[in-house]
Fold this protein.
Amino acid sequence: MESARDWSDSAGNSQDNAPNLTARKQAYSGARFGVDSMFKKEIISQIVIDASPERVWHLLTDFESFPQWNPFIRRAQGRPKAGGRIEVHIQPSGARGMTFRPKILKAEPNHELRWLGRLWMPWLFDGEHIFTIEPIGIRRVHFVQREIFTGLLVPFLKHGLETNTKRGFEEMNLALKLKAEQLAE
């Protein structure tokens, strides 16, 4: 599990125990994660949450509670277990919703949840959705939500990804922060 202590940016520069979030944001948007092309688009949203990694993980994986607090992933069913499938209904505010059955690629408690969703067939429109929880202090985490979209439909859907999907990520991150910090009090 990566900690703030052993984190390094795309150039291999290590960070100290209290990482500079501006530097980290620049690293995330640089060559390591933010490379877009005609058939690839990455959306990233991040936030600092004053709660423990355990609290944030619990909320992120308590799918039954999503309808009460999550403005982006309105519904999710299943278990977050690597190799399994879940059913997810996303609907950014002001946009149409979509239901799909992604495969869980990674479920590392208190650190990372990752799944791969696909529209009909490989390489048409795939989305690898990644949630990471990085401790940056006592009862404080850096939460990153990102998705890497690839496939032949990316050029046609890029505008919606940059607006609706990005807005959905930001709204979910803020709602997660408010819920986690409210429960941490």
